[in-house]
Amino acid sequence: MKRLALFTMTAAVVGAALAPQAAAKPDAIVKLVANCTKEASASHEEAWRMVPALRPVIEAHRDLMFTACARFLSEEKTEVLLAQCVAQAAAGPRHLRDGRDVEQPRVERQTELCHRIATLRASGGAQARAGVY
After folding, report:
1. Residue 29 contacts by C-beta under 8 Å, 6 or more apart in sequence?
2. What is the full DSSP assignment across 86-124?
3. How many other C-beta atoms can be found within 10 angstroms of the C-beta atom of residue 30?
4. How does pLDDT run across 11-37, given as a tens digit for each residue?
5. What is the DSSP letter of 74?
6. How many CA within 13 A on the CB side of residue 78?
7. Which of 51, 47, 56 is nearest to 92 (CA)?
8. Collapsing DSSP states into helix, strand and coil, what is residue 25?
9. Reduced to 3 DSSP states, what percent helix, strand and coil does the chain have, rounded to the nearest 5?
10. Distance between CA atoms of 23 and 16, rounded to whole angstroms?
11. Angle of CA points 113, 114, 120, to nearest 5°
12. Pick from 92, 81, 103: which is nearest to 25 by CA?
């Protein structure tokens, strides 16, 4: 129950902080950013359950990944944001399971979302306004 409350509070804070910036972005970019944070949350939730001793580290990385996704709604340079998003995706969530350190499919999905958001931003949102994503 505490995890759900923590996740809800984190999502509300991130959403409130980014609401003015999101209003200026095309809907497709906002949706992809939401998917990016959702994917980060899902992957970190599993790591959080599996390795309770590492919860503070896992939560810290989840917050970094949320921020990397959400910053795409800012006016910062797309190349910088893409590099940060991909780096955070590759960095975690890390936990030990069957001798593996990183769940590669989750990292690939997260990385793909970073690239899709960056592509839409770089195209000036023309594809986003046309509904192509």
Report:
1. 72, 73, 117, 120, 121, 125, 128
2. HHHHHH--EEEETTEEE-HHHHHHHHHHHHHHHHHHHTT
3. 19
4. 544 554 444 444 456 899 999 999 999
5. S
6. 13
7. 47
8. coil
9. 80, 5, 15
10. 12
11. 90
12. 81
Q: Are 36 and 43 in contact (CB under 8 A)?
A: no
Calpha distance 95→19 (Å, rounded) = 33
What is the C-alpha R_g of the chain? 15
- The whole-model pTM stands at 0.69
Tokens representing 30 are: 């906002």
Kind of pairing between the strands at 94-97 and 100-102: antiparallel
Cross-strand partners of 102: 94
Residue 101 structure tokens: 């350190």
